[in-house]
């Protein structure tokens, strides 16, 4: 349709509704149904702007001090947040120019919604204080105020505005067809109505800000500041070979009663930290896996020194690693014996289903050739039916396969199914068999299952 016609479409529709016919240009059809629906007259009120959120209060400054018995007075207070702004009131609708005697129902314009109030700012945290001392009694000369800032009020929502009221609520329109005076001349009178506009909703109130937290006290019995600790290290596995990685950690005790240690009138959180000792340990990786360690340049290991002076080593989830840790003095050595990519753990497949009777065997091959390292246990569900009138499959055996009935030849497993407690009819040539084998594969504390399904007939021995 031509763009100039589209731009005139609302005008053409109005013309159609009022006069009952359509101008020659265009292809819009007028009908009785079309006259029932129309746009509102005037214009709806707009929504008021939302109020801005209040700024969060500034946190108190963290400080570290050395005490020697002289009085100390510190203000580490968190500041209060700022109130959120109020939302603006909704805008009034345009209620003018209600159409009269039109052949359709109309709705008066709706009022504008009020804007939402802004969120109140959060209160700032009290500043943290670290005190280095050699005489515990000197802490009684330290007055510190580290209260939390208060959260501020949210802004009020703006008021919605009233919708327009209809100036004329109902009217009648007479429509005639045919030629006056003739038998086909008929007139019909219909009543149409105007519905008042809806009032705009009031805006929502902004939520109040949250109160900050009290400052936290830390005490250290030392004349020197503590060195920075490094309890966690992340490195590519390939970079661990031939290196000794140093880890350190400052160990703390959590205690209660902080205010009782300080000058009367102090304000600070009740729970405080007390330095216990510094932990320093060293880690090295010993690589005994057949694959070169450079194959794992894109894999990252994480070392973590815990409070028990033990170094934990964590490898990526997609690597299965078998190894052992040994600690001598401050050195922890982790020896890697086997590394298998997780996707290679579940690459078992049926190689052959052969034999009959007690000599019936299922052969499974490890396509990833990793079975010399991975522990494997099998469970089987054996179902069978014959070709001589059997109506369906019957479960003959379901359970673990004893280890003595599983033979591994490098990466090939032979499952002696004929030695299981299965009826002779279900093991003879011609029997149709459904197998569901579940292999549980384990290495280095990790384990997963793979389900293998096979269906076919027991063949006659050659």
Q: What's the structural blueprint in terms of helices and strands?
A:
Layout: H1 3-7, H2 9-19, E1 63-66, E2 72-75, E3 106-107, E4 129-133, E5 142-145, E6 170-177, E7 186-195, E8 217-221, E9 232-236, E10 245-256, H3 258-261, E11 271-287, E12 300-305, E13 311-314, E14 319-328, E15 331-341, E16 348-354, E17 361-366, E18 375-385, E19 394-400, E20 406-409, E21 412-415, E22 432-443, E23 446-457
Parallel strand pairs: 1-4, 2-5, 3-7, 4-8, 8-11, 11-15
Antiparallel strand pairs: 6-7, 9-12, 10-11, 12-13, 14-15, 16-17, 17-21, 18-19, 18-22, 20-21, 22-23
Account of the protein in words:
The protein is mainly beta and 462 residues long. Among the domains are: 1-32, no CATH class; 226-251 and 277-342, no CATH class; 345-457, Sandwich (Immunoglobulin-like), CATH 2.60.40. Helices cover 4% and strands 37% of the residues. The chain contains three helices and 23 strands. Strands 1, 4, 8, 10, 11, 14 and 15 form a seven-stranded mixed sheet that branches. A four-stranded antiparallel sheet has the order 16-17-21-20, with no helix packed on it. A four-stranded antiparallel sheet has the order 19-18-22-23, with no helix packed on it. The chain is flat and about 105 Å long. The two termini are 79 Å apart. Residues 1-39 have low confidence and may be disordered.
Descriptors for this entry?
single chain; 462 residues; mainly beta; Immunoglobulin-like; seven-stranded mixed sheet; four-stranded antiparallel sheet; 3 helices; flat; disordered N terminus
């Amino acid at each position: 349709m031509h763009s100039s016609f589209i731009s005139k479409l609302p005008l053409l529709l109005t013309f159609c509704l009022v006069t009952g016919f359509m101008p020659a240009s265009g292809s819009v059809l007028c009908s009785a149904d079309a006259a029932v629906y129309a746009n509102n007259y005037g214009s709806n009120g707009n929504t008021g702007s939302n109020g801005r959120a209040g700024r969060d209060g500034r946190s108190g400054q963290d400080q570290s001090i050395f005490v020697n018995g002289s009085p100390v007075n510190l203000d580490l207070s968190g500041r209060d947040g700022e109130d959120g702004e109020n939302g603006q009131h909704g805008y009034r609708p345009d209620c003018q120019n209600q159409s009269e005697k039109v052949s359709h129902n109309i709705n008066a314009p709706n009022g504008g919604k009020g804007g939402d109030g802004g969120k109140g700012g959060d209160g700032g945290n009290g500043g943290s204080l670290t005190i280095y001392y050699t005489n515990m009694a000197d802490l009684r000369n330290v007055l510190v105020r580290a209260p939390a800032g208060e959260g501020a009020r949210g802004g009020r929502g703006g008021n919605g505005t009233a919708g327009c009221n209809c100036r004329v609520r109902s009217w009648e329109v007479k429509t005639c067809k045919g030629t006056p005076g003739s038998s086909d001349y008929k007139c019909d009178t219909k009543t149409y109505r105007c519905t008042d506009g809806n009032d705009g909703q009031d805006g929502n109130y902004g939520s109040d800000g949250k109160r900050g937290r009290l400052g936290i006290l830390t005490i250290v019995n030392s004349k020197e500041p503590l060195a920075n600790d490094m309890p966690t290290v992340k490195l590519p596995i390939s970079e661990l070979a031939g290196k000794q990685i140093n880890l350190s950690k400052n160990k703390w005790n959590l205690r209660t009663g902080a205010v009782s240690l300080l000058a009367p009138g102090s304000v600070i959180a009740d729970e405080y930290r007390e330095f216990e000792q510094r932990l320093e340990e060293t880690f090295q990786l010993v690589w005994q896996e057949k694959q070169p360690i450079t194959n794992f340049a894109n894999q990252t290991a994480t070392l973590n020194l815990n409070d028990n002076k033990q170094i934990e080593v964590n490898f990526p989830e997609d690597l299965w690693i078998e190894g052992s840790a040994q600690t001598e003095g401050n050195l922890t050595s982790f020896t890697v014996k086997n590394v298998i990519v997780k996707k290679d753990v579940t690459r078992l497949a049926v190689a052959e289903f052969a034999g009959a009777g007690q000599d019936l065997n299922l052969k499974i091959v490890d396509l990833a050739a990793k079975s010399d390292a991975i522990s494997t246990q099998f469970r089987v569900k054996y179902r069978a039916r014959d070709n001589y009138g059997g109506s369906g499959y019957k479960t003959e055996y379901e359970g673990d396969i004893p280890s003595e009935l599983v033979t591994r030849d490098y990466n090939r497993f032979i499952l002696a199914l004929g030695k299981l407690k299965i009826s002779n009819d279900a093991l003879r040539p011609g029997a149709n068999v459904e197998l569901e084998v579940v292999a549980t594969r384990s290495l280095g504390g990790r384990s997963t299952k793979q389900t293998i399904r096979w269906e076919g007939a027991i063949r006659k021995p050659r």
